[in-house]
Amino acid sequence: MSTTPEKNIHFIHLSDPQLIPAGEMNYDINPQLRIRQCIDAILSDCVSLSLDFAVITGDLTHWGEEVAYKVLREELSRLPFPVYMLMGNHDQRETFSTVFPEHPIDDESGFVQYILDSSAGRMIFLDTLDVGKRSGVLCQERLQWLESMLTDSEGQPVYLFMHHPPFTVGLSAMDDDNLVNADEFLQAVKPYLTQIRHIFFGHLHRTVTGSWHGISYSCPLSPVHQTAFEFGNKPESKKPSYVSPEPPAYHLVELKPEQVVVHSRLFLHSEPAIDSRSCYRYQLHGQLNKE
């Protein structure tokens, strides 16, 4: 696949919508309603932008059910641009491909891995699903594919997309469930560290940003429930007994030749806008309210 728009690239990054059958609830949340509200917000918030595509970095469904993928397909059909998806630990490759037969996959291996070449550089989408496990893996076949895509990138900027992060972040509920062969992943990407500009991932159900071996990264909140904001090991019970009701978000990303910009949008924030011209503002020395 390739796209070569003569402009900066704008796209939406979502992760972990965890769709279930229509009308069903999960953690006291209706996932179909949440993804619908998210799409409503994207269409409203970004009306002035020409969005190129959206990316959902895995956990498209909660149990990998065909009916859940069909709910996702129905909701995504409202978006006027392509949506590229990845596998998370809650997903099923075969069922996904049944419902989304036109979606790119690696025809030789069946992994949901592919590239998108754009005017911003090469985007590499990785399949970290390790069937039956919460953690992720890149087997030797997938690592070799990644290395070949990097070798073939010919020095252009590279952006990586994956579900599981290849490092820990300190969250007690998630750090044992990241990419289990992170050391092998690092060895595969190490010769290309100066080319890789950003890693986009999910899985954590929290907004997490930073850098790893000089590569910047970002992870969005989920459109549904969030991971507890708890750190360190808990000998009595590593997993918290609750999920966080914090509001959901999507990321708006802009790729420029010299910059990666990631905006986090809390799309269910319900407080009314504050009128900066008429609201009360604390001023020094009796100054009048000014913009």
TrEMBL record:
Q: Does the keyword Iron apply?
A: yes
Keyword Methyltransferase attributed: no
Which keywords accompany this UniProt record? Hydrolase, Iron, Metal-binding
* Superkingdom of origin: Bacteria
> Domain Calcineurin-like phosphoesterase: where?
10-206
Gene3D superfamilies cross-referenced by the UniProt entry:
3.60.21.10
Q: What class of enzyme is it?
A: hydrolase
Q: Which Pfam families match?
A: Metallophos
Q: Which GO terms describe its molecular function?
A: 3',5'-cyclic-AMP phosphodiesterase activity
EC number(s) recorded for this UniProt protein: 3.1.4.53
Of which family is this protein a member?
Belongs to the cyclic nucleotide phosphodiesterase class-III family.
Q: Give the matching PANTHER family.
A: CYCLIC NUCLEOTIDE PHOSPHODIESTERASE CBUA0032-RELATED, PHOSPHOHYDROLASE
**Name of the protein in question:** Icc protein
The organism named in the record is: Endozoicomonas lisbonensis
